[in-house]
UniProtKB/TrEMBL annotation:
GO terms for molecular function: kinase activity. Pfam families: FAM198. It is found in: Endomembrane system; Golgi apparatus. It comes from Scomber scombrus. It comes from the Eukaryota. The keyword RNA-binding does not apply. The chain crosses the membrane at residues 30-49. The keyword Transmembrane helix applies. Belongs to the GASK family. This is Golgi-associated kinase 1B.
């Protein structure tokens, strides 16, 4: 069986060769030429296919190599950003459009590119002119007609009176058609792209930030505080949150959860809040930036959490403050009042504030150059003619410095040992040759946690990670470029402060009080 299978191809081959020999010479030549052409075509096609396959494999290896480098760069940056944001292992993002802050310089785009296609502008929403004009005339910022009557009522009743109580439902009707046009109305302006916020924020901080940025405003009113500047308060929920402390009283100023709307010029409040949390001081109230279409011409306004514990005697009595002169303040620093929980003597002249609180306040105020607490008369630097201390004549009081009264030294009614940093009006336009070193006078210790952040050279990274959460503030300051300029100022002042610490032998100690 096997031999027959072997002989059959051989016999077939012999028959073909015999028939080929019997053919005429012309036919044999034609057959040979056809076989050569077919063979040549086959060889050429195989050579081209192998060359094309080799080129394709070379391109694939190049792409694989470059892609590996690109992924390597991204992974490095991603790891850095994860370390900055959480300080722990990687967590999966909760939103798809993840944005990581790195320290790479941002490429500048041309100011104007010809031939580009601009996006279509949104159609303007037609409003009810009569209702809009009526509300504009009664805007909270223009209340000259009622101001005199309200002040007389306030003086006679010795209690706060509402200047204007605006029902927000009327505003919702005016902007009802615009609400559907706002695509990002349902998206929070607090951008937290991971499962948890940066470690320097507590759960209460995140909750307060989301409330201030996203809460539905039910009512807005302006109230007086005696001789102090009036407050513009917005109210959201009518019921007090279960997380509200027991010492917070339910009063007529705020019947639920509220926030204080500041002027658009006071944007330092937001930066001060993030700087305070990054340094680990935790002495400022949560603050965010938010836009109201019916206030301040739609400009972003700083919103600060309302804390009724700062007014234990009521809003008419004002802040719960400490009355100290500069001389008494320096004396309390020398006596180290309440240090190691030692009760000071009655004749010592110590206030209720713990000794470490002054060190935290001095460091915070120096970085932001806030002088309205410890140096209200501008005695430690060269003020400008348009500064308030010069216009009101307070700068002339520097001749008798010991009797100058400190201002805005505020604490909570139930916690008189710790300060609360409010009215944080800082200055970023003050050069290093005109810093207020009077804020550091008498300070012999500084908090270790805050100084370690300044020494670690990660202040910029942490501030970028922190400020990026507030989208409205981030964009109002010019995005990354504008925020970098603000951080540049703080970093230069931090270097000056570290040099001052070494030159004056200031101790850096833990201050967990």
């Amino acid at each position: 069986m096997g031999k027959s299978r072997f002989h059959w191809p051989c016999s077939l081959f012999l028959r073909l060769t015999n028939s080929f020999r019997r053919c005429p010479l012309s036919k044999r030549s034609l057959i040979i030429a056809s076989v050569c052409v077919v063979y040549l075509f086959f060889v050429v096609s195989q050579v081209g296919y192998s060359q094309q396959h080799r080129d394709r494999r070379t391109d694939k290896e190049k792409y694989r190599y470059t892609r590996g480098l690109y992924n390597l760069g991204i992974s490095d940056d991603l790891q850095d950003s994860v370390d900055l944001r959480t300080g722990a292992s990687f967590v999966l993002p909760t939103r798809s459009n993840v944005v990581y802050i790195t320290l790479r310089s941002k490429r500048l785009k041309p100011a104007n590119i010809r031939g580009t296609i601009r996006p279509k502008l949104r159609r303007k929403v037609r409003r009810n002119k009569s209702a809009d004009s009526a509300f504009t005339q009664n805007k909270l910022g223009t209340l000259e007609q009622d101001s005199g009557l309200t002040k007389r009522n306030f003086a006679s009743n010795n209690s706060w009176r509402e200047i204007k109580d605006v029902d927000y439902k009327s505003v919702v009707i005016i902007h009802n058609s615009q609400k559907d046009a706002d695509a990002d109305s349902a998206v929070s302006s607090i951008r937290i792209y991971s499962q948890r916020a940066p470690p320097w924020f507590s759960a209460q901080d995140v909750q307060a930030m989301r409330f201030l940025a996203d809460a539905q405003v039910l009512r807005i009113k302006e109230v007086l505080r005696g001789d102090s500047q009036s407050l513009l308060i917005f109210e959201s929920e009518t019921d007090i949150s279960p997380a509200t402390p027991k010492h917070t009283k339910r009063n007529n100023v705020c019947r639920g959860r509220c926030g204080v709307i500041n002027s658009p010029m006071d944007t330092t409040e937001v930066f001060a809040f993030h700087l305070d949390r990054v340094l680990g001081l935790n002495r400022t109230l949560p603050a965010v930036s938010r836009k109201f279409s019916f206030l301040h011409d739609g400009q972003p306004s700083p919103l600060v959490s309302w804390d009724a514990s700062l007014y234990p005697e009521g809003l008419a009595a004002g802040w719960s403050t400490v009355k100290l002169t500069w001389g008494e303040y320096q004396s309390s620093l020398r006596q180290r009042c309440w240090h190691k929980n030692s009760i000071p003597k009655p004749e010592s002249g110590c206030s209720t504030i713990h000794h470490y609180e002054w060190s935290k306040l001095a460091l915070f105020d120096f970085l932001l150059q806030i002088h309205n607490r410890l140096d209200q008369s501008c005695c430690g630097f060269r003020p400008r003619q348009e500064d308030v201390c010069v216009e009101l004549g307070h700068h002339a009081e520097c001749r008798d410095q010991d009797h100058i009264q400190l201002a805005n030294i505020i604490h909570r009614g139930h916690n008189q040992r710790h300060l609360v940093f409010t009215n944080n009006k800082g200055y970023f336009d003050r050069n290093e040759d005109n810093l207020d070193f009077r804020l550091l006078e008498g300070i012999k210790e500084l908090p270790e946690q805050s100084v370690s952040v300044l020494k670690s050279r990660r202040l910029r990274e942490k501030l970028l990670q922190s400020l990026f959460l507030d989208q409205t503030y981030w964009e109002s300051q010019g995005s990354r470029q504008g925020i970098d300029k603000l951080i540049d100022v703080i970093e230069r002042r931090a270097k000056v402060l570290l040099t001052y610490i070494n030159a004056h032998g200031i101790k850096v100690i833990p201050m967990n009080v």
